What does this fold into?
Amino acid sequence: MPDLPILPDPPYRLQRSLGYHLSLAARLQERRLDERLRLAGLNRTTWCILLGVANENLTQPSDIASFVGIDRTATSRALRGMESEGFIARLSGESDKRTRRIVLTEKGRHAVVQATPYARENGQLLADLLTSDEADELQRLLRVLIDGTPATLQTL
It folds into this structure.
């Protein structure tokens, strides 16, 4: 019988892992939000892009990618799909016709109006589990983790 590898000592305890708890909490809130966003024809990535355009007045794909926290290729792919579904339009730049400017269509505006209450309700479900001070501290600590982990994602 071949020698079995020696298990790590101390053993890795999944239930004590910060990453496991972060992932589980994120998946739970993502699942709730995804179910509701689907009613508006959106997913988390398209929702975040719409928010960047609608609420932050972002018009350049590179700015949208930075805002959402995904790479430029994933952003371009999402924008193409959103354009074909009628949520956004890509217009030529005003001063440089080679650049693209992203704008919301009427359908995109409607989707933001429809989905905003879903996102607020989902956020409130989480907020109701914490005191105001705990919510502030959790956001602060999550920001520390996010800022200390330099990476862009391909999807949300």
In short: The longest helix spans residues 106-127. The helical segments are 18-37, 44-56, 61-68, 72-84, 106-127, 132-147.
